[in-house]
Specification:
By secondary structure, this protein is of the alpha+beta class. The protein has a two-stranded antiparallel ribbon with strand order 1-2. Helix 2 crosses helix 3. The radius of gyration is 13 Å and the shape is flat.
């Protein structure tokens, strides 16, 4: 068996590059506490915690444009 996706560090690096190129701030969901993620996503705490531990995805949201 082999992975057909890039591991998480590559996704995080690409996300940082995208944020830099577009001038938008991004927040990676894994950087939020379980409580913050549950509040912002509306998910139950157990599901929110699972979202913080992806294998190949780097789940994020745009926080706003940098000045």
């Amino acid at each position: 068996m082999f992975a057909i996706a890039e591991p998480q560090p590559a996704a995080a690096d690409a996300l940082e590059e995208l944020a830099s190129e577009t001038g938008f701030s991004v927040v990676q969901l894994r950087s939020l506490s379980p409580r913050e993620l549950a509040q912002n996503s509306g998910l139950p705490p157990a599901q929110a915690e699972l979202m913080r531990q992806p294998d190949f995805d780097e789940v994020f949201f745009f926080a706003g444009r940098n000045s």
